[in-house]
């Protein structure tokens, strides 16, 4: 099993082996003449390519109009074969593929001593893609695989020489014109010209039209080095400098997530003292002072502490602040007396 291009594309000499059996793979490709079911031009759907009577006999095909149309198969990316005795062509390209009616599958059987020393069988198909996973389920390719395996393994598979003689396979090759080359050299029709044609038609071809002659330009280029004061040396390679711009900064889609502050250590605070009103706090301060007065000799200091505590509870200006020493209690009492006097003065005005 080879493919399009034959030995030239696969770098092998398989023809050296199989030509002794009368089979040779050509260095060509099979293409279809029109589109049908498969997109690629080299995926050829052959519907009338059966050329040997063993195909319907071994596959059990009965309901068919003609022998060559009893089996349809896809022949993708394949080449054609040349066959000679003792080989027998089994499948061909049919009438809708190019080249026309060329063998694509051939069988050969050798007997002991005629012409080979040991018996054996060989089956050659010009496309290995026929039996791949992509094409084995297409059309009747699975039947073609069963036919090949049946020929190689079944001892009762005998190629009928009568069928081989009745099959006519065309081996003629037709050349294809270089359409691309002609398209680049358009010429008007000679029948439409009014000029007399010369006897020698070779003078009508303009060969310098596609020539490239630098003989007159090179000396001027060499002299240009001296005029421009440049060294006559090969140009050096300038190392490229790639500028990689930094992307513009963009704001984050989501704002940053900060950690929540820790919960206050409530066990370190006296909540009743912190949330009680001024009257309750003054009552508690008075009770603490009354329980300690008379028990110690520092009565004056206790009274000063009581006055300072009451000033802090009431928020008086004369109260001491943390980090400072205790202020003069007389200033606190003076401020209290001034507030009371101001209150009574305003009360008398309203009455």
TrEMBL record:
Q: Note the InterPro entries from the entry.
A: IFT52, IFT52_central, IFT52_GIFT
Gene3D superfamilies with a match to the protein in the record: 6.10.250.2800
- Boundaries of each IFT52 GIFT domain copy? 1-164
Q: Please give the Pfam families that the UniProt record associates with this protein.
A: IFT52_central (PF23352), IFT52_GIFT (PF23355)
Which intervals hold domain IFT52 central?
183-264
Its domain of life reads Eukaryota
Coiled-coil segments on the chain, per record = none
- Protein name (record): Intraflagellar transport protein 52
Organism field? Ranatra chinensis
């Amino acid at each position: 099993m080879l493919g399009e291009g034959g030995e030239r594309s696969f770098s092998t000499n398989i023809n050296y082996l199989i030509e002794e059996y009368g089979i040779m793979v050509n260095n060509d490709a099979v293409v279809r003449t029109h589109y049908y079911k498969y997109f690629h031009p080299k995926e050829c759907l052959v519907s009338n390519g059966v050329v040997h009577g063993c195909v319907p006999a071994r596959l059990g095909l009965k309901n068919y109009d003609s022998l060559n149309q009893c089996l349809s198969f896809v022949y993708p990316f394949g080449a054609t074969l040349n066959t000679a005795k003792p080989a027998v062509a089994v499948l061909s390209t049919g009438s809708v593929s190019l080249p026309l009616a060329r063998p694509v599958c051939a069988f050969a059987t050798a007997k002991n001593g005629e012409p080979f020393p040991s018996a054996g069988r060989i089956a050659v198909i010009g496309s290995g893609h026929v039996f791949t996973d992509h094409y084995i389920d297409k059309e009747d390719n699975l039947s073609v695989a069963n036919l090949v395996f049946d020929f190689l393994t079944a001892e009762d598979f005998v190629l009928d020489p009568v069928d081989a003689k009745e099959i006519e396979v065309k081996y003629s090759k037709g050349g294809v014109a270089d359409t691309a080359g002609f398209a680049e050299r358009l010429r008007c029709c000679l029948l439409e010209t009014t000029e007399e044609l010369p006897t020698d038609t070779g003078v009508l071809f303009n060969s310098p039209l596609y020539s490239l002659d630098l003989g007159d330009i090179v000396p001027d280029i060499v002299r240009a080095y001296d005029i421009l004061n440049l060294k006559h040396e090969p140009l050096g390679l300038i190392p490229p400098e790639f500028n990689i711009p930094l992307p513009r900064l963009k704001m984050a889609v989501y704002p940053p997530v900060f950690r929540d502050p820790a919960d206050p250590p409530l066990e370190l605070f006296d909540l009743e003292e912190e949330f009680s009103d001024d009257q309750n706090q003054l009552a508690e301060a008075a009770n603490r002072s009354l329980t300690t007065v008379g028990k110690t000799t520092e009565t004056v200091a206790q009274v000063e502490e009581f006055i300072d505590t009451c000033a802090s509870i009431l928020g008086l200006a004369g109260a001491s602040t943390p980090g400072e020493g205790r202020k003069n209690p007389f200033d606190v009492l003076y401020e209290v007396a001034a507030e009371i006097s101001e209150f009574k003065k305003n009360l008398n005005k309203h009455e």
